[in-house]
Amino acid sequence: MNIVPTRTFTQKYHVKTVVWLTLFILLVIGTAKMTGVDFIMFFANFGQFTALLQQMAKPDWQYTSLVVQPILETIQMALIGTTVGTLVAIPFSVLAARNIVKNKFLRGIIRFILNLVRTLPDLMLAALFVAIVGIGPVAGVFTLAIFSFGMISKLFYEAIETIDEGPLEALQAAGANKIQMVVFAVIPQVFNYFVSYFLYTFEINVRASTVLGYLGAGGIGVYLQRSLDQFAYGQTAIIILGILMVVLIIDGVSNTLRERLL
Amino acid sequence: MTEKPIIEFQHVSKTYQNGTIGLKDINLSIPQGQFLVVVGLSGAGKSTLMRTINRMHDISTGNIFVDGESIVHLEGKELRRLRRSIGMIFQNFNLVKRSSVQRNVLSGRVGYYSTWKSTLGLFSKEDKQKAIEALQRVGLGEKLYSRADELSGGQQQRVAIARAFMQDPKIVLADEPIASLDPLTTESVMDDLKRLNEEFHITVIVNLHSVSLARRFGDRIIGLRGGELVYDEPISKVTEKDLEAIYQPVSIVKKSEVQA
Question: A159, A217, B124, B194: which has the fewest Cβ within 10 Å?
Fold first, then answer.
């Protein structure tokens, strides 16, 4: 009875894997055809790109002092927006987690709201808030807060759903109410995820706020748009370098914190 | 054994939604201060029986009294009040691994605090002192500020016992408390439970697989098989042979009963 069975044809030649891979490749080629992606044109006109790069390779260093202030403004916008979004996201993510809220109906409503918020494009939100509160960083903060809220609440509730449920049971058996269960058994288990997702969102918001500037929502984006409009690519280079610095710093802080918290 | 019962089961049955029978017409009276050991095969209903006492499981029919009061219809605040008076020990300890030992022990006390006070961690001086004493009682005073996942399995289970002790429980339920421990730590965990029973007159109910431990620590042993109470004797009358019978696969036992 102790004989190794022979593999079937399907198992031996990995038929399933081959079929799926072929399908996937066909799908990519097909969609490229339909959307009209033309690689030949891309490479033929590559010179345009290098020309732009050459111009940007001579950064206009004198512009640096002018850029510091708006970059700081961008960071401030991102920080306030992310913080506000996160604070609102925490209760929502708890209510959306399958292992905390057993009531399907309530959870469904909360998740629907979250899906709705995530569907709203941030550019549309920015345009909306510029119309409401006027041109300036305040519109950017509101936009980023809502954008962060949508993203963070999804990341958070997925983190909450992965926790060890033993401590929840223990707290419940000790006579804790729902809020006490969340505070004592859930939050400590997901806290490091929360910090890490907060920083991740913060980084995304710094980059997103450059685009928001196009719509007049304040920050470095306003300067980016101006430099591009004036074909002042030396200035563009400085702005991009500045944003890169900020992103690198956030990434470094995020890594250090995560290591310490784990 | 003439003391008034602290827990009483009257014709308790439990059928799960998928039709599985958890408990079948259980009648059981447990006096205050008893050390009761429940034995039986996995799936015999030991955990279910235990969890009906603090209403972590609801029953289908029958009635359960704790301290003379029916508990089957308790809700909200009253249910939490019942649970707070019943400590529970789990096979997997169920500590919050990333929290300190102190916070884990104190979390046994939250049933006595308002939501906002406990949320902000505003535990009274007395309770913090009580947590230290509870920890010292299980020999782990020096671990107060360690993170729970730095402790060994046996130490974690003893922290869980300290947490249960914080509840000022009248009853402690221990669901296979030693199933994931080595023989040496098993000893100390069982000793800790026995001390709660003897020093504080706490009623202790333990689910066990080990027949020898059951005989050493229990005042009384009950056996479950297929959700039915098939054995109930004080420790003085328990024989090795009885216990072996409880652990027979159901089919064999049925046959031998017919022959007898």
Answer: B124
What is residue B120's three-state secondary structure? coil
Range of the domain at B35: 1-85+171-260
pLDDT value, residue A85: 94
d(CA B188, CA B158): 8
Instruction: Report pLDDT digits (tens) over A85-96.
Output: 999 999 999 999
B126 and B154 part of one domain: yes
A interface residues, B as partner, C-beta within 8 Å: 164, 166-167, 169-177, 179-180, 183-185, 188-189, 191-192
Is the Cα dihedral A41, A47, A50, A54 positive or negative?
Answer: negative
CB-based contact B94 A170, cutoff 8 Å: yes
Domain count, chain A: 1
Of B168, B197, B228, the residue that ends a domain is B168
Whether residue B178 sits in one domain with residue B150? no
At a CB cut-off of 8 Å and minimum separation 6, what does A214 contact?
Answer: A221, A224, A225
In this structure, is the dihedral angle defined by the CA atoms of residues B68, B72, B76 and B81, taken in order, positive or negative? positive
CA distance A170 to chain B (A): 6
Please report whether residue A154 resides in a domain: yes
**In this complex, which of A164, A174, A177 lies closest to B107 when CB atoms are compared?**
A174
- Closest-CA distance, B90 to chain A, in angstroms, reads 8
**B80 and B177: one domain?**
yes
CA–CA–CA angle A116, A118, A123 (5° rounding): 110
pLDDT digits (tens, 9 = 90+) for B91-148: 989 999 989 999 999 999 998 998 888 888 888 889 899 899 999 888 888 888 889 8
Instruction: Report yes or no: B186 and B178 within 8 Å, Cβ to Cβ.
Output: yes
Residues of B in contact with A174 (CB under 8 A): 83-84, 87-88, 107-108, 110-111, 163-164, 167
**B259 with B226, same domain?**
yes
Q: What is the pLDDT of residues A80-126, one digit of tens each?
A: 999 999 999 999 999 999 988 888 999 999 999 999 999 988 888 88
A-chain CB neighbours of B54 within 8 Å are 173
Q: Domain limits at A194? A: 66-261
* B167·A174 Cβ contact <8 A: yes
Domains in chain B: how many in total? 2
* Cβ separation B87–A174 shorter than 8 A: yes
**CB-defined contacts A:B, below 8 A:** 80
| A184 contacts on B by Cβ (under 8 Å) | 96, 99, 103, 107, 110, 118
